[in-house]
Every structure is written in C-alpha cells, then in structure tokens.
C-alpha cells in the first residue's frame, strides 16, 4: 500500500472514530480531542524516517549517509515500503509505550 493510500485510509478511520465519539458522548470537546490524538497518531506512524530508526540504538546519534538509488536500483531492491514495518525490539517497545500512554490518556478523557 502506498503512503498516500495509507494516509487516506487512516483519515477515513479517524473520521469514523470522531463520529462515533460524537454520537456516543455529544461532546464537541471530546470529538476535537479524538481528532487531535488521531492526527498525531497518524503522523507518528506515516511521517518519520523509519530507515533511520531501524538502526541499532547507538547509531541513532551518528550521521546517516544519504541513499541515492536510481530507478533501476530501486526496482531491483524492492519498494522503499518493503523495509518500512520490520520489527525491531527497541523501536517497537518505544512506539508501543508512547502510543499506549497516549491512548490511555485519551480513553480516560473520553470515558469521563
């Protein structure tokens, strides 16, 4: 799935979640909070340079060489999205911790 399609699908799911929160709570404030949390969540998954974060942790503080691949080389090694969602323990743990805390805070706000 291309990044544009993923962004579009994420936005559609976000709008559906905002509508459900609005219908269930009748609160514009909670709808806006849901929208803000969703936008930050979508941006946190789709915008970062995952190639940079999918290195060993000590290399996060070193400069990363730019990759300049031609179209032929890019086709030969596969699409850039092929390495996008590989599981790495440290980055997966950090993402889970941050998103888990954010979702918990959002749920506490919406449910009260």
UniProtKB/TrEMBL annotation:
UniProt topology in membrane: Multi-pass membrane protein
Pfam short name (any one): SPC12
Gene Ontology biological process terms in this record: anther wall tapetum development; signal peptide processing
Keyword Protease attributed: no
Coarse class of the protein's main subcellular location: endoplasmic reticulum
Transmembrane segments: 6-25, 32-50, 87-107
GO cellular component terms given for this protein: signal peptidase complex
Keyword vocabulary terms for this entry: Endoplasmic reticulum, Membrane, Transmembrane, Transmembrane helix
Protein location: Endoplasmic reticulum membrane
Protein family: Belongs to the SPCS1 family.
Protein name: Signal peptidase complex-like protein DTM1
């Amino acid at each position: 799935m291309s990044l544009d399609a993923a962004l579009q699908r994420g936005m559609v799911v976000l709008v559906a979640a905002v509508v459900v929160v609005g219908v269930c709570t009748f609160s514009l404030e909670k709808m806006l909070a849901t929208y803000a949390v969703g936008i930050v969540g979508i941006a946190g998954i789709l915008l970062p340079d995952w190639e940079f974060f999918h290195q060993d942790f000590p290399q996060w503080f070193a400069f990363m060489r730019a990759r300049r691949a031609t179209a032929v080389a890019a086709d030969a090694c596969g699409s850039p999205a092929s390495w996008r969602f590989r599981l790495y323990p440290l980055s997966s743990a950090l993402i889970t911790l941050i998103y888990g805390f954010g979702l918990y805070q959002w749920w506490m706000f919406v449910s009260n």
